[in-house]
Amino acid sequence: MKFCKAVPPKRKWLKEYICQIVLSVLGRALQSAAKFDHRLENEVAQLPEGFTIKMVVLPERETGRISPTMVLEKANGRLKYTGRLRSRADLTIRFNNLESAFLVLTPQMGAARAFSESRLSVVGDLAKAVALTRCLNVTLAYLYPGVIARRLVKRLPEPIHSLYRRRLYLYMVGIPFGR
Question: Which positions ≥6 away from 77 have C-beta within 8 Å?
Fold first, then answer.
């Protein structure tokens, strides 16, 4: 009886790139929206200086590749998107696999449902994770039209004044230039 070698699964490079692009856009959108939305400013003000948030797709390191990652840090009273590479974080949100991350990051499934189905996990202070969830809900309301945003969040935030101007600023200045 001959035994076959284990065949490693094929790399899903397109899903990896899509997840990394969405995490980059989300990081820059959070950084930009935290400057002009009072709800995000209040949430960020409650975080300690130097607080680091990391969203990562597991497994973090596989055959030398870096998995899709987003790192945010509070510096000088502001939330700043710092890119991908950071080993230590005060709050880490881990997607269990690439498929789960793809469902959540492309608006097919909300984070609350993914958490209830054990598709993602939180390492760190749960109160800070809830504050981040509130920030993400407001940011998603800016990024997506109402039809899509209603599917992603349990309850949309109260109406955002000058939604279209802020959404245009986010798309034209915030995401491309990180301002």
Answer: 44, 45, 49
